[in-house]
Amino acid sequence: MTMPAQFVLPASALPAPARRTGRIDARRSGLPAAPLTADVPRSLAHWLCLAAVYLTIATSGVVFSEPAPVDVLTMGLLVLLPVVGLLHVTPSLALYLALWLVVGAGGLFSIAAMPAVDDPGLGKVVTFTAVSIYLSVASFTFAAFIAKAPRRHASLILSAWTLAAIIAATTALAGYVSAFPGAYDLFTKFGRAAGTFKDPNVFGPFLVGPIVYMLHLVVNRPLERALLPLAVAGVLALALLLSFSRGAWFVLAVAILAYGWLAYVTTPSRLAGERIVALLTIGIAILAGLVAIALQFDAVSGLMSERASLSQSYDYGPEGRFGGQAKAIDLIAHNPLGIGALVFGRVYHAEEAHNVYLSMLLNAGWLGGGVYWLLVLATIGYGFRHALQRLPSQPLFLVVYATFLAQALEGFIIDTDHWRHFYLLMGMVWGLMARPHDADT
Question: Which helix (H) or strand (E) holds 188?
Fold first, then answer.
């Protein structure tokens, strides 16, 4: 008995392998082995949610004030994605969320331990802690979204992030050269390119992920299709340079080196490895050429020489950055519950600790801060093991992992606890690890 060509079974009636692959296993179903349908049609709500995710990430570079547009859109996604069924929660992701909630609970417990004198205000501390919890839940949501369709959803997020970076970078360059009246005041801060960000020190690292993604496309595309991503990487790198952020320079260098090394050691053939080395060398040479050209301008070279120093005057002394970190370590040792978010920079020192790992111990106590350390270390350790496995999503995973590794290391010199793209990166790493063998068929 033959089956009509137009006959299509509902997705719910298919065995699990068939729902994943769009084909029916005759041995399990008892039906003929011929394919009945190529894929289950996606609903309009599905496509609208994907568009909402793209829009959310694409606007993540517009952070003139807080809450930013990306926060409003992300809050919507926290409701929409589970309703439409675009999340896939695995045991590892449930653990990921649980660990983040422990960090959040530590932040709430630390509020009870706040000093009673000259505190920054309970409302501000509660708001700061609530934002931290929101970011961690958003990180889990993006992780589960990635796990639903690892390659497709990771590509969507990286493409949208690249668009956001292009918008931020072009506005930064327009501001730096005063392309139109008011551009310099709007898109630069203290003579440094900031684009659509409040802080050049956040703007610069934000561009690193898209730069590495563009280099990934250069490495994996034919030469004629590699020119556009190489040009985009050059524009983003120039904007990053003009942010004069030492941390951003460090993150870019580490991310490119980590990606290049991982791509080389995991490549399937010697010829492919030689191509990776050659193309990355060409890309780095072009970026170096852009730096050399920029340094021909006095304004750039002057600020560059000042910012290129490994230490600044404000780093030293009891009220400097290192003096503040010494105070933070002493407070951590004597306050197991922490002292509450924002308190250190308003009560004990002139600014925050400029070290996210110390700040988290101050903000969330030994428990919450320790779990934060555990999360970062676990992401780096398990991520490295995952990066060496030959899997369908491995090429994109290398981009995300190398960028996360660099950003995690930057945490030793700056507070990244409210950097949205840091939480996004960590969520992407966990999401890609959650379903390693999924081929998005």
Answer: strand 188-189
